[in-house]
Specification:
Layout (H helix, E strand, L loop, with lengths): L10 E8 L2 H17 L7 E8 L5 E8 L2 H8 L2 H13 L2 E7 L8
Antiparallel strand pairs: 1-3, 1-4, 2-3
């Protein structure tokens, strides 16, 4: 399960996808399959979440890893390249970006 905590000793990756309403559900399913069959089984994986905007034109994938190196190893793997080719056919573009949590507010 993802942990959102300031100064957590982990790597957060947010990937955004630009899609059409016609491909949104298909891409969500491909991401789900990739996560369940491959990503979640990789060393260093902590958790993931998937978000879709109400117009079904943007998807955000939130994953966390113990370390940047563990994420980069998975990102560069041949298995992940296969998934990325599928994602590329269903989206206009996508970009994984590494983040650090710098603020959390509880209400």
């Amino acid at each position: 399960m993802p942990v959102i905590k300031k100064d957590a000793d982990l790597q957060t990756v947010i990937t955004t996808y630009e899609v059409t309403p016609g491909t949104c559900a298909d891409l969500c399913e491909e991401i789900r399959v990739a996560c369940n069959e491959f990503i979640s089984k990789q060393e260093g994986f902590i958790g993931a979440a998937l978000h879709v905007n109400d117009a079904q034109t943007r998807i955000a994938s939130y994953t966390q890893w113990r370390t940047r190196d563990e994420f980069m190893r998975v990102l560069r793997s041949e298995e992940m390249r296969v998934y990325h080719r599928k994602f590329n056919t269903l989206s206009k573009n996508f970009a994984p970006v590494l983040y650090d949590v710098v603020m959390v507010s509880d209400g």
